[in-house]
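In the laboratory, one determines a bound structure by crystallizing the protein with its ligand and collecting diffraction data. In a computational setting the workflow is compressed into a single prediction: the sequence and the ligand go in, and a structural description comes out. We illustrate the idea with zinc ion.
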Amino acid sequence: MNRNDECWCGSGKKYKKCHEAFDERIKEMKFDFMRGQVRPPRKLINNAADIAAVRAAGVVNDGALDLAAGMMRPGVNTESIDDAIADYLTAKGAVSADKGFEGYPKNTCISINDVVCHGIPSKKTILKEGDIVNVDITTKYNGYFADASRMYIVGGHADANAERLVRVSRECMELGIAAAKPWHFLGDIGAACGTHARENGYSVVTDLGGHGVGKGFHMEPFVPHTGQPDTGMLLVPGMILTVEPMINEGTYKVTVDKKDGWTVRTKDKKLSAQWENTILITETGVEILSS
Ligand SMILES: [Zn+2]
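The predicted complex, in structure-token form:
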């Protein structure tokens, strides 16, 4: 690429004033392919306009999760929460990325107690005092995606073991995000999540993980929540991904509901909890785009 050409990232700037130094830095790095260290493909690098668009989607997504917080009362059915969120997204000029994704029927995933993820909202699923509930929403806004989930405790109190799981799973996410650093490797995130989970006597779901997000709903790389530091894809400024550890009280093994094809449960029926943020890798660390 000529130094005076427009940069490949689509910024409209000259290459020499945009990603030339970035490309030089990657070229000079030694990748340990035996440890799975790989260069990030250019399609995963977001320019300033892309980032602003995902940030805007994230503001809407955060608002939807705030709305869910106000509905976590005993007796509320999960379809009514899904409906309220769909209305909110419509009012903001946004849509749920979940609805219709591989045939998924609803706008959100609402996963209670032993449901790990992909719980389908239903009139028949009624919140009870002390349930631990994950609401997961991906907003598509002006063609860009932001994805986050939070845990809620119905009625504000749960059994001590459930409250501890909810707290530790959040800490796992936070430690994973703190480990995400530019010019370091993806495996650092999972190593931090997994270490904290195991230190607390919990397991980490490995069948599902985080993912690149932004210009698409599910992009490269797959983000594992356990594993070894200094492995996997190089993290560089402009990458956007989710960190979303699913932490189980008992076994890490999960099953998928045979009837609906979506609902993921712990194999031993013990509790599971999950928090998820969409993060941007910056020059100096991370920026949280949806939480
Ligand atoms: Zn550029």
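The chain has one domain: 41-290. Keep in mind that any predicted model is a hypothesis to be tested, not a measurement.
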